[in-house]
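Sharing a chain and its predicted structure for anyone who wants a worked example. Both blocks are below, sequence first, tokens second.
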Amino acid sequence: STTSTTSTTTPAEDQKAVFDRDGLLERLGDAEYLHMFVLKFIETTTELMAALNGEIGAENQSGIHLQSHSIKGASASIGAEAMRSIAAQMELTAKEGELSGIPALYAELTEAFGAFKEFAPGRAQQ
């Protein structure tokens, strides 16, 4: 047995959490559009992340809730499970008014989005 607490997932499971290409392909039905959808998600989510960051800076509970909800939905649609999970946690945290935990979640979301941007475009073209 391992004593590592960092991760119990395999590299393939980690990649699927960053971007579930097969799940997206199943929903779209056509590989031709995968790359375009991934690039559009990156463009849109970059804007949503900037808006979310602004709401966090303003400590606007309803704005944080709204932006994290939007990111959660977009992430679910594209197959970015790691992002979806973090955004869902942010949405719930904001809804409950626990804003002190939001900056750490935003940092996690930023890291997950960075992993998506690094990994997904190339994977979408396969």
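Comments welcome. Residues 1-7 have pLDDT under 50 and may be disordered.
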